[in-house]
Amino acid sequence: MSRFGARARDGGRAAVRATVGRATATGSAVAGSVSRWAARRERQAPSGADRGDVPGWVMVTVMTAALVVAITTLATPALQTLFTSAIEQVTGIAGD
């Protein structure tokens, strides 16, 4: 008998059981991997050492802000002169 005939006789229950069994096995494998990963992480990181790299990020942020202030301070007079001359050229053309 063909395999389609056997599937039709049991209403597809065998296929459903096989699929559920594979899904359960996959879920168990994932859960086992996650628990092994968590256990390894706890073993490797001593308590209180898992703070991340907060001081590093603070330093990067402060240095970026300092660079922005320094560049703005140096570039402001040149940008004002550039803007003023551009506006004067535009209004000079329209005023003639």
Describe this structure in words.
The protein is mainly alpha-helical and 96 residues long. It has helices at residues 3-9, 13-44, 54-95. The longest helix is centred in the last third of the chain and has 42 residues, at 54-95. It starts with a helix and ends with a helix.
User: What would you call the shape?
Assistant: elongated
Mean of all residue-level pLDDT scores: 74
Strand segment count: 0
Main beta sheet, described?
none
DSSP helix count? 3
User: Structural class of the helices, strands and pairings?
Assistant: mainly alpha
How do the helices and strands follow one another from N- to C-terminus? HHH
Give the arrangement of secondary structure elements:
Elements: H1 3-9, H2 13-44, H3 54-95
Give a concise summary.
The protein is mainly alpha-helical. Helices cover 84% and strands 0% of the residues. The longest helix has 42 residues.
